[in-house]
């Protein structure tokens, strides 16, 4: 798990790429933008997104006060049912908006 606070206010130096693991990103303060399958998504406080292995994605920008978390999970750590649920979710560009208690 990686804290994203250090990215705030900087142009992200990422290039469009694919990973061989699942990436879950959550913004806990302010906002940031990424693209998943070439669709830009702006995440605000309380929003999360999941990226599947081999799904094309890139980080774009984060506001100066942005804080968040990234979690990478190898596919072998998920069950077949969990992989299926994530795959269905990743077909859309929707974000998951979490309840503040969550």
Kindly describe this structure:
A hairpin with a 2-residue loop joins strand 3 (31-36) and strand 4. A five-stranded antiparallel sheet has the order 1-7-2-5-8. A three-stranded antiparallel sheet has the order 4-3-6, with no helix packed on it. It contains one helix and eight strands; from the N terminus they run βββββββαβ. The longest helix is centred in the C-terminal third of the chain and has 11 residues, at 80-90. The protein is globular. The protein has 102 residues and is mainly β.
Q: In whole angstroms, how far apart are the ends?
A: 17 Å
How are the strands of the largest sheet arranged? 1-7-2-5-8
Query: What does the overall shape look like?
Result: globular
Overall pLDDT level: 86
How many individual helices? Answer: 1
Provide the gyration radius in Å. 13 Å
Element pattern in H and E: EEEEEEEHE
Which stretches are low in confidence, meaning pLDDT under 50 for 5 or more residues running?
A: none
Q: The biggest beta sheet, please? A: 5 strands, antiparallel
The SS-based structural class is mainly beta
């Amino acid at each position: 798990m990686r804290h994203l606070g250090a990215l705030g206010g900087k142009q992200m130096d990422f290039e469009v790429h694919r990973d061989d693991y699942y990436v879950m990103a959550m913004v806990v303060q302010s906002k940031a933008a990424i693209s998943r399958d070439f669709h830009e998504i702006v995440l605000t406080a309380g929003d999360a997104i999941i990226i599947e292995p081999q799904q094309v994605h890139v980080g774009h920008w984060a506001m100066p006060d942005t804080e968040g978390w990234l979690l990478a999970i190898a596919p072998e750590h998920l069950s077949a049912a969990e992989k299926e649920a994530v795959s269905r979710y990743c077909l859309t560009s929707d974000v998951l908006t979490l309840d503040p208690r969550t």
